[in-house]
Amino acid sequence: MDIEILSESGLAHWGGLIAIPEASYPALNETAAQIRADADLLAIFAAFYEKTALRGEWKREWSPLEIDPLVSQRMGERAVQFYLLAHLAALPHTWQFYQKRGISLEIFQATLLDVQFYMQDYFDLHGIWGYTVFPWIWRHLAGELFRFGRLQYQPSSFSGGVTALRRRADGEILLLADPEQPLRPDGWAWGAGLSPEQRTPPDGSSWLPVFEITDQGWRGHPVSPYGPVQKQPVSLPAAEWEVALQKGDPILDLHIPRRDPLNAQTCGESYAQALVFFAEQFPEHRSKALFCHTWMFSPQLQQFLTPESNIVKFQREFYLYPSAGSPAFLWNFVFGDKYPDRASAPRDTGLRRVVLDWLADGKQIFDLPGIMLHSPAAWGSQPYMRRWDERAGG
Length: 394
Fold this sequence. Notes:
Elements: H1 8-17, H2 25-37, H3 39-54, H4 69-75, H5 79-88, H6 91-101, H7 105-111, H8 113-126, H9 134-141, E1 146-148, E2 151-157, E3 163-167, E4 173-176, E5 211-214, E6 217-220, E7 222-223, E8 234-237, E9 241-245, E10 250-255, H10 264-281, E11 290-294, H11 301-304, H12 310-315, E12 319-320, H13 327-334, H14 350-360, E13 368-372, H15 383-393
Parallel strand pairs: 10-11
Antiparallel strand pairs: 1-2, 2-10, 3-4, 3-9, 4-7, 5-6, 6-8, 11-13, 12-13
Helix pairs in contact: 2-3, 3-5
């Protein structure tokens, strides 16, 4: 079986196309040569290639990729290079998918830039070229995730238990809480702010919100756009309100590549491009909302960053809702694997300093999901939190 990526010319072509680090080629070519020369390794490689690149049977669960014991035994720390090459072997098929649909080389290259970033990140951390974010990159290779400008998008279905209602008169959005989500007394999700091993089953202090659908409309506990559920239920008449988003509806799952700064203009432009692209390429997927679950939606960020912070502005563009998040999501992106705890973490940036000070004071940090239902042209208007604040102030 001829697998392009295992040849020096194939690696040079496809690696160059997605701009993997130039310095990685000698190590990857050496690994490819070892695979070609070892019948057992080549058989494992070919089987992985057939399963993923040819049949599309990618490991979709967010869990570490299982390393074949023989690959680990014979390749040691370079086993990650084996599986990096095994994933990159799908690139010709990914590009063929793009060509059949008339998707540009520019979008292909922009989408696959994540490979370059995570390869460099692995090298900076371990001193050898590698890659371990395999549960993430299959989306790019399978043609299920695309990047436009600043942001990335993946067609999906809304899995949240909240229901978004839109007032017919003025378009105002109100979320009613998930009736199956146990809550703390303060309206946040039970277990929020704790690591999975610290969490306990809900006790007598927890409560469940109500959600009822009647001929007259809906009754439930409203969710503040900042995330917590309010204690007083509300009734929304069907004559004045309509469903804007509910579980199972088509959405675009938004992802935020690292490094580049965020601002309303670049985000709005990106979203506008995405809507045009998916309407043309996937017309059957009529997205009703933008969904995002990111460390940037840790609600505590608004308490220790300024309103002018791009992170705060980005967070305020979405309507947040409860989830049992933990400090780990934010910690991973702010400090990375190199600094696993507060004792080793540096105070070399403003964000790192305020996070460390916040945690040192015994305060919680946890991430939330959020949705956005306004148009790209309105990016920057922050309609959900702004209206909530105006109502509270009035």
